C-alpha cells in the first residue's frame, strides 16, 4: 500500500486516526460461580480492541489500540470502558501512543470509564509519547457509582528520550475528571504550552524531567495503600526519579517524575503492581 | 436560569475606593484565614535544597505563578467572579467544585479548603456576602475553595475584577515570600526585593486569567505537587502545608 503524501508539505501523511472503541464487562453466573465476562464490544475506524486471554485470576483484559499508528493534528479517538456492577477487569493499550508533530490543529483523545457499584476497574494504558511540534487535547472522564474501585494511571514521555530528542514546541492539555455518584471528587489538569523543555527545567515543575505519570486509586480503603506506596517510592527514588503520594477523601494520589521513559517505568511499574495486587498487563512487556 | 438569593443589586452600592480598601482588608496577612500557616510545599523544597536563597525563591515562585496554582487559582477566581456577578448559580457551583477537586494532595486540599472556609466565615461575620453564604451552603460539607470564596465576595460587593485578581495573586506571592523569610531564612529586604521582582509576573498572570476560560486551566507544577505530598512526612514542620 503506498503511503499518502501531503500536497502541502511533501511529507508522508499518516492514516487519519479517527474512530471509537468501546468495551463493557459484566458479572455472569458461569457453572455456579460468578465471573466477569465481556458484555459488549464496539470498534470503528482506527480505534480497535484486542481481547487477550488472561490466566492470572485478575479478570478479563481489553487492549485498546490505534491502528493508524499515531495521532496528529485533526485526529479524534474515543475509548470507553464500562464495568457493570460487581465486575473486575483491566483495560490497557497495545503500545505507547505516539502524538506526532502536526501541520495544523490538535489531536483529540477522549477516554471514558463507567464503573458501577461493587466493580473494580484497572485503567492501565501504556505511555503516551509526545513528539516535538505535537498538539493534543486528552480527557479521562470517570464516573464511579457507590463503592466502585479504580486504579488508573496516565504516563507522558516527551520525545524519544533514549534518542536524546527534545520537545521544545508543544501544545498539550491532559485533563482528568473523576466523579463519584455524580459529584466531582478529583480533577487534574496538565497544560504544557510552548517550550516544554524550558517549562520543565525549573525546581517547581520538573527539574529537567521529560517523563511523568499520575496514578489515582479510588477505594474505601485507599488510605491503607499510602504506606506501601511511600515505602516503594523511598526505595526506588534515585537520581532522575522522584515521586510523591498522598491520601485524602477516599483517594490515593501519586505523582511520578523521571528524566526519561525508562526511568519512569522503574517507578511506575512496581507501584501499579502493588496497587492492583496483580502483575502488569502482558502488553506492557511486549 | 437560576438566580442567586441576595444578588449584588441588593448590596449597598460601594463608594469609589471601596475596591481598594476591601481588597486590602480581605487579603491582608491579618485577615483571619491563617494564611501565614501555609507554605504551599515551600517548607519542603527549602529542606530538600531547591530553594536556598532569594534567587532560587524567585525562580520557584515564578514557576508557581505561571505554571502552577497562581495561574490556575486566577482562572478559577475570574470564572467564579463572573458566574456570581451574572447570577449563574450552577456554573458557580461547578467552578467551586473544580477548584477543590483540582487540589492533588492532602495539604493542598487543606490550604485551599481551610482558607476558603475561614474566609467565608470571616466575611459572613463582618461584611456579609449573600452569594458566598449561599454557595457555602450548597457545597457543605465541602468547603468553598479559597480563590472562589474571594471571587464571590468581590462579586457581591461589586469590586473591580481586574484589581481583585491582581490583589489575590499579589497576596499569594507575598504570603509565600513571608514563609520563605522564616524558613530559609531570608532577610526582610531580600524578601521585599523578591516581591518586587515577581510583580511583573503577577500582572502578566492576572492579565492572562482575565481572558482565559475554565478550559484553559492547567499547569505543570509537578515537582511542587510532589513537594506538597512529601511535606506531610517532613520531620520538623512550622507550616500546615
Keywords:
heterodimer; A: 286 residues; mainly beta; seven-stranded mixed sheet; globular; B: 241 residues; mainly alpha; Urease accessory protein UreF; 11 helices; disordered N terminus; nickel insertion (chain B); UreF (chain B)
Describe the structure in your own words.
Chain A is mainly β. Chain A contains 3 helices and 17 strands. In chain A, the strands form 2 sheets. In chain A, strands 3, 4, 6, 7, 9, 10, 12, 15, 16 and 17 form a 10-stranded mixed sheet that branches. The longest helix of chain A is centred in the C-terminal third of the chain and has 16 residues, at 261-276. Chain B has a single domain, classed as Urease accessory protein UreF, CATH 1.10.4190.10. Chain B has 11 helices and no strands. In chain B, helix 9 (161-183) runs antiparallel to helix 10. At the A-B interface, strand 13, strand 14, strand 16 and strand 17 of A face helix 3, helix 5, helix 6 and helix 11 of B.
Briefly characterize the structure:
The complex is a heterodimer of chains A (286) and B (241). Chain A is mostly beta strands and 286 residues long.
Biggest sheet character of chain A: 10 strands, mixed
Instruction: Let me know the average pLDDT of chain A.
Output: 93
What are the segments of chain A in which pLDDT stays under 50 over at least 5 consecutive residues? Answer: none
**Fraction of residues of chain A in helices?**
10-25%
Oligomer status = heterodimer
Major sheet summary line of chain B? none
In what range is the share of β-strand residues of chain B? under 5%
Rg of chain A, rounded, reads: 19 Å
Measure the end-to-end span of chain A: 26 Å
Give the % helix of chain B: 55-70%
Low-confidence stretches of chain B: 1-10
CATH superfamily of chain B: Urease accessory protein UreF
Distance between the termini of chain B: 39 Å
CATH class of chain B: Mainly Alpha
CATH architecture of chain B: Orthogonal Bundle
Count the helices of chain A. How many? 3
